[in-house]
Description:
The chain is α/β, with parallel strands linked by helices. It has two domains: 12-103, Transcription Regulator spoIIAA; 161-379, no CATH class. The protein has helices at residues 35-43, 65-80, 92-103, 117-155, 162-172, 177-200, 208-246, 249-255, 260-299, 303-313, 318-342, 348-379, and strands spanning 12-18, 21-30, 53-63, 85-88. The chain has a four-stranded mixed sheet with strand order 1-2-3-4, with helices on one face. It is elongated, with a radius of gyration of 40 Å.
Amino acid sequence: MGRSAAIGNQPWISQDRTDGAAMLQAGGAWIVTNSPPLFESLKTLSFRKDEPIVVDLNRIDRLDTAGAWLLYRTVRDLRAAGHDVEYKGGTDEQMSLIEQATAHDALCLIEPPEPNVFIRMLEDIGASVMHVGAQATASLAFVGLLMETLWRYTKYPRRFRLTATVKQMELIGLNAMPIVGLISFLIGIVIAHQGAYQLRLFGAEIFTVNLVVTAVLREFGILLSAIIIAGRSGSAFTAEIGSMKMNEEIDAMDTLAISPMDTLVVPRFIALVIMMPLLTFYADIVGLLGGGLISWLSLGIEPMQFLERTHDVILGWDLGVGLIKAPIFGALIALIGCYEGLATKGSAESVGHHTTKSVVESIFMIIVLDAFFSIFFTTIGV
């Protein structure tokens, strides 16, 4: 006889060899409360390579699902090691339990342990930095490609698409005048009304004109125009180019040796750089009209008096500051809108994602640059 793990009424397992086959005999109560010693005993079993094995169940008194699982797992591992294993004896109920254990042998997905919150935070920061770095590199490459394309026009001016550029100027500039004018007019009213309310406390209502002129010409005219164009035209650039990318129209253009930069990007870029100062000047005038109207109705400042005061208040750079920023903001909006459109991966979801990203990035960069220009011009005394 071979080894036995226990005797008597306790669960036990013994190993023997007869007629060229290994005999594995099990007996006693194979139930859940006896699983620990059975588990340890089963780990000590050893057999010759590839020898057949018979598992004798005749002496098992009690068997539950835990014991059936231990028997099944042992037989499964032996078969995986190359042994030919078969059961001998066992009641119908016992064999049914073993079959149930066999049928429910499936992998159980274990949820991975949660990493430390600080480590996860560092991982997120690192991933964000890598993403920003990769995007900055791609953006610089896109700007370089655009500059190369513009420089090529000095040698081959006939490549420039005048009709497409004029069409974009109409869409960007003329069609945007109603919304830009309305918003600027209302902002002029708000500035004048709020400024007059505060200045009235000091008996200085006449300085409302100074406030309106300075705020509209230096900041609000260009800032509102740029934000409106970013939401209106910048998003349109991304959506149009992204839809073409999704429909593989840009791939077809590349196949036909038609440059997307010449056809799609440059006309929009030049049109926005040209129209942005014009829209800014238009927004400045309409904003002053709104401020003049509320000054007339609320403060009793006559239109001619408002114009005279405006003429006295305007310094040499008040109008120029906004107009200097306008083409820079226009170029920024066009670059971001076209870049995000070309970055679309070819699905409707990607088009929506990059369109939203285009608007958010454009408005963010506009405000950042406006803050920079404001501090810069104040520092140099302009």
